[in-house]
Write a structure and sequence with these properties.
Number of domains: 2
Strand order of the largest sheet: 1-2
Structural class: mainly alpha
Bound molecules: heme C
Helix content: 40-55%
Number of strands: 2
Number of helices: 6
Order of helices and strands: HHHHHEEH
CATH architecture of the largest domain: Orthogonal Bundle
Distance between the termini: 69 Å
Strand content: under 5%
Largest sheet: 2 strands, antiparallel
Shape: globular
Length: about 170
């Protein structure tokens, strides 16, 4: 009878293919989980190294989805899963769905766009630099940790979440 555990023909190595099999199964599982993600921040359009001051992905639903995945990885522990920071009483950080609410109320399209530009810039600087108030770090700095693409995908996501609830 052929024994798949002794393919190498070497005595005493029967465990190796078995271990490799488990390893491959785990890797395969990880690859499958990756493939199920609707969109990934690694796949959003590249922006190069020059920092934009306004969100180049504004209103892009695909990018917002990718940003949501990145948000739950990096920001949710303080700002809430799916950016739901309010209502539970326990979240230590502001509800980012409300960040652009003042802009959303502006009727004039050009003024609203200018307001969003300011909001984007505030978001970018805050995320890159973090927030330290009288020597106490309220939020860590993300400079060097998140790409420009990820930061703008995060902004696209929180804006989309805010617009959903008309906050
Ligand atoms: C360790 C907890 C923590 C993590 C993780 C965290 N934040 Fe914060 N963040 C805070 C706190 C606390 C504040 C409020 C700081 C203050 O106002 O002094 C804040 C404030 C902000 C603000 C300003 C909000 C406002 O209304 O002025 C933005 C924007 C922000 N965070 C974005 C993010 C993003 C994006 C991420 C993920 C990349 C993130 N944060 C991860 C704790 C965190």
């Amino acid at each position: 009878m052929s024994n798949r555990f002794s393919r190498t023909g070497e005595p005493g190595t029967g465990w190796r293919p078995w271990v490799a099999g488990v390893f491959m199964a785990v890797l395969g599982g990880a690859a499958a989980a990756q493939a199920e993600l609707p969109y990934n921040v690694a796949d959003v359009p590249a922006l190069g190294s020059e920092w934009r001051v306004a969100n180049p992905y504004r209103g892009n639903a695909e990018v917002a989805r990718a940003g949501g995945v990145a948000f739950n990885h990096n920001c949710a522990r303080c700002h809430g899963v799916d950016a739901v920071a309010s209502g539970m009483g326990g979240m230590p950080a502001p509800d980012l769905r409300r960040l652009a609410r003042a802009c959303r109320r502006i009727k004039d399209a050009a003024l609203q766009s200018a307001c969003m530009d300011d909001d984007d810039d505030y978001f970018r600087v805050t995320v890159l630099e973090g927030k330290t108030v009288v020597g106490v770090q309220h939020m860590p700095a993300w400079k060097g940790q998140l790409t420009q693409e990820t930061i703008w995908a995060l902004k696209t996501y929180v804006d989309a979440r805010g617009a959903e609830g008309k906050r």
